[in-house]
Amino acid sequence: MRTFICICLLLLTVHLPAQDATSALLPMPNQVTLSKEKPFVIRPGKTAVYWNRPELEFTARSLQNVLRDRMQVEIPVSESDRADIRLLIDPAMTGKEHYVLEINTKGITVKGATAAAVYYGVMTLDQLLLGDVCATSQKKLSSVYIDDAPRFAHRALMLDPARHFLPVDDVKFYIDQMARYKYNVLQLHLTDDQGWRVEIQKHPKLVGKDYYTQEQLADLIQYAAQRHIEIIPELDIPGHTVAILAAYPELGCTHTDTLPKNVGKTVDLMLCANNEKVYTVYRDIIKEIAALFPSRYIHLGGDEAVIEKNWTKCERCQAMMKKLGYQKASQLMIPFFDRMLSFVQDNGKTPILWCELDNIYPPANDYLFPYPKNVTLVSWRGGLTPTCLELTRKHGNPLIMAPGEYAYLDYPQFKGDLPEFNNWGMPVTTLQKSYQFDPGYGVPAQEQAHIQGVMGTLWGEAIRDINRATYMTYPRGLALAEAGWTQMEHRDWESFKKRLYPNLMNLMKKGVSLRVPFEIADRK
User: Fold this and answer.
1) Which pTM does this prediction carry?
2) Mean pLDDT of 485-501
3) Model confidence pLDDT, tens digit, residues 441-482
4) Given 3-state DSSP classes, what are the helix, strand and coil percentages for the chain, each rounded to the nearest 5?
5) Most buried of 41, 154, 182, 450, CB within 10 angstroms?
């Protein structure tokens, strides 16, 4: 019977030339040593799991679920550190996410300096079982030693429930998939022209029909934290603000006071830069957001501000320009963000903004306005990332890499494979293109030392529900996971393709809607 099961599983993975412990590792660990030692055998009734710190309980329960799923065995808990399976926090280890996974004849040990590191080791263990199908079917684990740590500390995906609302349970489902691939940040784009999705108790008029209560977000934050994922809130200003202007029209510029603000239809309106009520309201908003989200970051957007249609025509803004001696309306971003960023910092948080340059297409020469050094920037505009990389290094701003040509997950994945609606002629970003992404752009190590990590962004104009969200994320999200975790010398497109197949099957088994990348197969 075991032989039959093994043959069936091998047929399901026919694209792989060989099955071993590395067949489904994704992202690829940075050091893997296979051993010829005999495998470890799970013995129902005898094998147990031990953990040495209370904060490892969730990880231990996750491991029990992995073994139940992969091997159909129930592994009990042991209070003895001599148990066959040991999960250990070892403060002597360097690196918050550095883990060591060792499997030998005697048992399994996963250790790391933090609970997050041990959790990542368990996720790798799950992939060992997924890839080594014959051994797994016999309740065996091949001997292996993995010493692994990520290339970048910040490995993010972004969801946009502002455009199309995603219920809490759907976001949790998305988080579940992220956790498998060692993502540790979920950015939530919570406000835009199409909706304000976060409850602000001091300003209840902001929300409409679909939104997250603060209680729901607290639950979601805790759910993500168990899986070592930090949720960063984004409140886009001074543009992308029709939702708040619909509730408080007086926050706009003088010439837009009487214009209709139809949420989801009206665009290109901005907050007024010279309106004291704008700052009073946002001081309240940022205070509540800072108290609600444990994340060290608050993202304030700062992108695609249509300054010419707003601040250049506003009597108050023009008066402010004259008073400050500014020659360009874009210079009003300086006092505007000077105050907004101070609210973030007053609440003990670090601000993030999208990196905007003095041109939206190459060539560009400088920032749109002088960003303070304590602002983390995100590079996103296609073709401008090398310039942004150089400018942030020069000016001392930490940088997150989300270049559209590699990391925009709302872009179609293949010619003709378009979103069903709201496609504005988006460029195609194939799986192979995403995999080619080197977040360091090949520059010398000292010139990329300020890069914090990567982010795959899924803007929501054409994302009606969670099934579309996961379809657009995977498999490209797997390529970006490897870009964020694995050093370039351990990355290889041909290897990635082979490791992709069992992971795609596993995601489908978990009910994840994804695009089957038929184009990567060799047709014979």
Assistant:
1) 0.95
2) 98
3) 999 999 999 999 999 999 999 999 999 999 999 999 999 999
4) 40, 15, 45
5) 182
CA distances (Å), 77 to each of 48, 226, 250, in order?
A: 6, 19, 60
pLDDT above 90: percentage of residues in the chain:
93
Residue 395 · residue 373 · CB < 8 Å: yes
Helices 168-180, 214-226: inter-axial angle, 10-degree rounding: 20
What is the distance, to the nearest Å, from the Cα of residue 164 to the centroid of all Cα atoms in its chain?
18
CA 152 to chain centre: 12
pLDDT, average across residues 178-187 = 98
Three-class secondary structure of residue 522 per DSSP: coil
If phi > 0 it is left, if psi is from -120 to 50 it is alpha, else beta; for residue 182 that is left
Q: What is the C-alpha R_g of the chain?
A: 25
Q: Maximum CA pair distance of the chain?
A: 84
C-alpha distance from residue 333 to each of 169, 238, 309, 519 (Å): 38, 9, 15, 45
pLDDT digits (tens, 9 = 90+) for 263-297: 999 999 999 999 999 999 999 999 999 999 999 99
